[in-house]
């Protein structure tokens, strides 16, 4: 048994905030002749530039989540029959504040969810932090988790997304600095530590330095852009591989999600004012899988 999910990862340069027609044409070009039902992912703030490689001010490019961009994204996803993560956008919230937000759309043209970046790259980014992690069910396929750029530097994000049932973490990125080298390592580490797929999609030059990559639940890089060019990474992953790795262990050895045994005591976490509770450590989906054996 398998659950295949085709991926189209667009390492693309950013576009002007109002270039909706150009974006639509680019999506159609990358999807053309590909497998139906693919998950198509663009980089962070892909439609948020004031000039080539220069991001617009958040307040200038922000609009409500259900604004004109949303209508285009919905129509594109529905017309092309794809799951679409169009990167992230500047969202003008009902509270009047601006967020860095990643939406997700279904092949039926419906917005399934939005995720507000919890960890803006301070002090340089001025958007307001989101306050919750987000996983999204792709009906009939599986569950993905969302993270935006700097989120990947905080292990709490990937850990919680995996615990919430994410089988693939989609990390949309706009990194134009030398620390992309560290981000590549972090994405592999997050995949290994949580036994999930990770797709990290960075912007192409001049908006970013590229090096987008796809990592499997054992930390193996399945594909990686060699440089910063405008290109498309494609693959078909099997989401059932996540359950297999978690059940039998990374390299057939390490089963971190099954660490605890009956009678183990809670471990204090002073940093968070809480604790690791052995009774809630294992994701519900894995507890169900192992109880059926």
UniProtKB/TrEMBL annotation:
Residues covered by the CN hydrolase domain: 5-239
Alphabetical keyword list: Hydrolase
Highest taxon listed in the record's lineage: Bacteria
Keyword Glycosyltransferase attached: no
PROSITE patterns according to UniProt: CN_HYDROLASE
InterPro entries referenced in this protein's UniProt entry, alphabetically: C-N_Hydrolase, C-N_Hydrolase_sf
Pfam families from the UniProt entry: CN_hydrolase
Protein name from the UniProt record: Carbon-nitrogen hydrolase family protein
The species this protein was found in: Kitasatospora paranensis
């Amino acid at each position: 048994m398998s659950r295949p999910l085709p991926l189209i990862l667009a390492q693309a340069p950013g576009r002007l905030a109002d270039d909706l027609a150009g974006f639509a044409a680019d999506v159609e070009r990358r999807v053309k002749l590909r497998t139906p039902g693919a998950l198509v992912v663009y980089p962070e703030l892909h439609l948020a530039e004031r000039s080539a490689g220069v991001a617009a001010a958040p307040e200038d490019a922000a609009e409500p989540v259900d604004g004109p961009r949303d209508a285009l994204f919905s129509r594109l996803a529905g017309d092309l029959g794809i799951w679409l993560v169009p990167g992230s956008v500047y969202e003008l919230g009902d509270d009047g504040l601006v967020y860095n937000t990643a939406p997700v759309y279904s092949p039926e043209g419906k917005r399934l969810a939005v995720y507000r970046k919890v960890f803006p790259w301070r002090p340089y980014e001025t958007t307001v932090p989101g306050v919750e992690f987000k996983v999204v069910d792709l009906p009939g396929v599986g569950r993905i988790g969302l993270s935006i750029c700097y989120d990947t530097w905080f292990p709490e994000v990937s850990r919680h997304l995996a615990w919430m049932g994410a089988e693939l973490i989609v990390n949309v990125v706009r990194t134009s600095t030398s620390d992309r080298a560290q981000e590549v390592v972090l994405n592999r580490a997050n995949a290994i530590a949580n036994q999930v797929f990770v797709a990290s999609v960075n912007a192409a030059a001049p908006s970013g330095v590229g090096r987008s990559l796809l990592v499997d639940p054992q930390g193996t890089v399945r594909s990686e852009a060699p440089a910063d060019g405008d290109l498309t990474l494609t693959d078909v992953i099997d989401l059932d591989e996540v359950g297999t790795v978690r059940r039998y262990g990374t390299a057939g050895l390490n089963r971190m999600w099954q660490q605890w045994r009956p009678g183990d005591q809670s471990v204090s976490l002073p940093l968070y004012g809480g604790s690791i509770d052995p009774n809630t450590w294992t994701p519900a989906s894995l507890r169900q899988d192992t109880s059926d054996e």
